[in-house]
């Protein structure tokens, strides 16, 4: 499923493949195995594959499943480091998307986060001022 969802041969990420992958992750109640599979994909040589992997990660983050935050952070950091070296607008998109996921991951951190990411910035507790974070 990971191979089909992150195939770099086609431009589109098929919704049904993504749904099946998310169901498999949800059934396992653990998203850590997915990161290992995504690392095996050619995310440093194919922009489309890298983008699709980021979309998959975003959807898993939205599902609030167990993830290895340090490993995920390192993976995103390696993507940022690699794609900042390449001059292209599409590469900048990959860098920005990776940074966005890093920020959302920090929001979800059980120790220091402010709430669960549900696809929008909704917090589990009300916040009066940004300094209250």
Question: How would you summarize what this structure contains?
Answer:
With 133 residues, this protein is mainly α. The protein is built from six helices and no strands.
Structural overview:
The chain is mostly helical. The chain is built from six helices and no strands. The protein is globular. The mean pLDDT is 77.
End-to-end Cα distance, whole Å, is: 38 Å
Write down the Rg: 15 Å
Run of helices and strands: HHHHHH
Number of helices: 6
SS-based structural class? mainly alpha
- Estimated helix fraction: 55-70%
Question: Mind summarizing the main beta sheet?
Answer: none
Number of extended strands: 0
**Uncertain ranges:** none
Oligomer: single chain
Average pLDDT figure: 77
Key phrases:
mainly alpha, 6 helices, 59% helix, 0% strand
Explain the layout of strands and helices.
Elements: H1 2-5, H2 15-28, H3 32-39, H4 47-62, H5 69-84, H6 89-108
Helix pairs in contact: 4-6, 5-6
